[in-house]
Amino acid sequence: MQHIGLFFGSFNPIHTGHLIIANYMAHHTELDEVWMVISPHNPLKKKDTLINMYDRLEMVNLALEQTAHIKSCTIEFNMPKPSYTIDTLVHLQEKYPQHTFYLIMGEDNLSSFEKWKNYEIILRDYKLLVYPRPGVKPSPLKEHPSVYITDTPQMDISATFIRKAIKEGKNVQFFSPDKVLAFIEKKGLYNS
Ligand SMILES: Nc1ncnc2c1ncn2[C@@H]1O[C@H](COP(=O)(O)OP(=O)(O)OP(=O)(O)O)[C@@H](O)[C@H]1O
Ligand SMILES: O=C(O)c1ccc[n+]([C@@H]2O[C@H](COP(=O)([O-])O)[C@@H](O)[C@H]2O)c1
């Protein structure tokens, strides 16, 4: 049996903030592995700036080329859209009954967690590893017995910031691995 942390996200694009969290969860906690689950469409986000899921997957894979114990997961690609996490959890548990799954999320997502489909069932059946994120109002759910607040380093960087900077022609070196930035440039992503 393995303990797998599921790090769900749009990864539009993946950035250093995501990667530091994934590393911390994979190597500094009791988890055996972290799977980065690329969500085709977050039910609570508009699709305007969302680029195609295959390009987002490619960027995650480029970022993870040299890493052990952190993998990409495309399970939501073939599931109904938008991507409801409870449905994915049930599907993964059926497919991998030998694993114990944990949900990894930033505090920003915990603050809106009560808007998620069947969030009470998620809290009943899964443990949530929640890491602090700068500038987020603390959620009362922090006290829930299924919620574990981790001691993860914090970095105030977001995909929104990166997309905006690229659109404005600014330099974003180090915000994401070089290979990811080269892919963005080659494909002309986030330019308009
Ligand atoms: N800098 C960061 N530090 C910690 N967690 C982060 C950071 N950036 C994103 N996350 C977390 O990663 C998960 C996936 O986030 P997502 O792909 O939406 O990135 P984002 O940077 O928040 O994107 P956007 O700016 O487009 O909303 C979420 O749980 C989010 O809280
Ligand atoms: O299940 C839900 O109702 C639900 C509501 C909002 C967000 N989510 C998921 O939370 C994950 C984080 O999304 P994001 O866009 O902040 O990276 C992503 O996988 C979404 O599909 C899920």
How would you describe this structure in keywords?
alpha/beta; Rossmann fold; 7 helices; about 35% helix; binds adenosine-5'-triphosphate; binds nicotinate mononucleotide
Report what the structure shows.
Helix content is 34%, strand content 17%. The protein is an alpha/beta fold. It has one domain: Rossmann fold. The relative contact order is 0.19. The protein starts with a strand and ends in a 5-residue tail after the last helix. α1 links the parallel β1 and β2. The protein is globular. α2 runs antiparallel to α7. A 6-stranded parallel beta sheet has the order 3-2-1-4-5-6, sandwiched between helices. The chain has 7 helices and 6 strands; from the N terminus they run βαβαβαβααββαα. The structure holds adenosine-5'-triphosphate and nicotinate mononucleotide. The site of adenosine-5'-triphosphate (ATP) has 17 residues, from α1, β4, α4 and α6. Nicotinate mononucleotide binds next to β1 and α3. This is Probable nicotinate-nucleotide adenylyltransferase. It is an enzyme of class 2 (transferase). Belongs to the NadD family. InterPro entries: Cyt_trans-like, NadD/NMNAT, Rossmann-like_a/b/a_fold.
**Quaternary class:** single chain
**Rg for CA atoms:** 16 Å
CATH topology label: Rossmann fold
Any idea what the CATH architecture is?
3-Layer(aba) Sandwich
Number of domain units: 1
Catalytic activity: nicotinate beta-D-ribonucleotide + ATP + H(+) = deamido-NAD(+) + diphosphate
GO molecular function: ATP binding; nicotinate-nucleotide adenylyltransferase activity
EC number: 2.7.7.18
Family: Belongs to the NadD family.
